Amino acid sequence: MAKIQTHPDTQHAPANGAAPARAADTAHAVQSLAEHLAASAVERDRQGGHAAAERERIRASGLLRLSVPTQYGGTGANWSTVLTAVRTLAEADSALAHLFGFHHLQVAGVLLYGTPEQHEYFLRPTVERDLFWGNALNPLDRRVVARVERDGYRIDGVKRFSSGSVGSDLLTFSAWHEASDTALIAALPTRTDGITVNPDWDAFGQRQTDSGTVRFDHVRLDPVQVLQAPGVEPAPRATLRSQVAQLIMTNLYLGIASGALQEARRYVRDEARPWFASGVQRHADDPYVQERFGEFWLRVQAARALADQAGQRLDAALARGPSLSADERGEVAVAGAQAKVLAHRAALEVGNGLFDVTGASSTAAPYGYDRYWRNARVHTLHDPVAYKIRDLGRYALLDQIPEATAYS
């Protein structure tokens, strides 16, 4: 089998030392990375654009190997561990946490859709060269099309919302196959001839997720690079990829909520002054402030409990292997929907409500507290949470599990 060929610019040096192997090592590496990202998060949020130096710091941490199985040189962590890492990084910088989480989502796609030979083909180089994955898989954008060409395909078109594409080494993407009226899923080196990545992401939140558009112009796709051929009905286990994606988002939102709560707590305790009518000497002793913190705390704690439960359900489902049934897969989707709804609400409520307890002075630009709400507001629009609640209602009322789609 031919090896993955990358542009000379993507022949990265290995990360400093081996990837973290023990749980304590992983937790330390994640915390260290989070502290580094936090130090510049406010200024980088203001600037937007491509966080090249920070991406290299993520690469050097060894954490890009976290979800890669040990037989390919990776750490082999379960998804509960990966999701906790996403959450911790999101407390500091949800845009870079998004890049980190979506890198691992693409690894999951290779593992779930690919053959053992494709696992070796894609994942061994991922570890050996510390390659960073991006994606151009937005299933609702069918402008990228695949046409049969000899024993492979020719890919043409443009894909938007391609998170992590700018600065990536490898791309997972989908392309519409008109003859079968279905999509194929594949992966290629980003520097492949005919692929152009445009850094045109300009939303008011999540400003450094490198979610530009990707253009494919007569790109050759070989059979080994096709993870799911058009017309193939994926097994229930393969459709867990969408649940990995949903739980990455859940933990991003939970991280935003937790980060906002921590920062509000610090400000109230250390900087805020009490309202003149409160009759207290410290702002933190104001019962109205305490009541709001109690509400914030409940939101975050409930979301955290369900997120952890959903991560454990995902791990158990993956451990079932090919024997996983559609009903068992549906139970994972229910657990994920519960967690996502509460994390969604927690991120928006705490990100917005923190100003009620921190006061007017906390709106000063150097604090950058508005980034919590902006980042949550942009990312929670990824797919409508109302449809998660509808799915939960159907399950509660009719015992109907969610349909397996790219979003559920």
Explain what the structure shows.
This protein is of the alpha+beta class. Helices cover 50% and strands 13% of the residues. It has ten helices and eight strands. Helix 3 packs antiparallel against helix 7 (287-319) and helix 8 crosses helix 10. It is globular, with a radius of gyration of 22 Å. The two termini are 35 Å apart.
The 3D shape can be described as globular
Number of helices, where a helix is a run of at least 4 consecutive DSSP H or I residues: 10
Q: Report the strand count.
A: 8
Mean pLDDT: 95
Strand ordering within the main sheet: 1-4-5-8
Q: Helicity level, as a percent range?
A: 40-55%
What is the first-to-last residue Cα distance?
A: 35 Å
Task: Provide the gyration radius in Å.
Answer: 22 Å
**Biggest sheet, open or closed, and with what strands and sense?**
4 strands, mixed
Beta content: 5-15%
Which regions have little confidence, pLDDT < 50, spanning 5+ residues? none
Task: Quickly give the structural class.
Answer: alpha+beta
Elements, N to C (H/E): HHHHHEEEEEEEEHHHHH
Helix and strand arrangement:
Elements: H1 23-47, H2 52-60, H3 79-92, H4 94-113, H5 116-128, E1 133-136, E2 145-149, E3 152-162, E4 170-177, E5 182-189, E6 195-198, E7 212-221, E8 226-228, H6 240-270, H7 287-319, H8 326-358, H9 370-379, H10 385-398
Parallel strand pairs: 1-4
Antiparallel strand pairs: 2-3, 3-7, 4-5, 5-8, 6-7
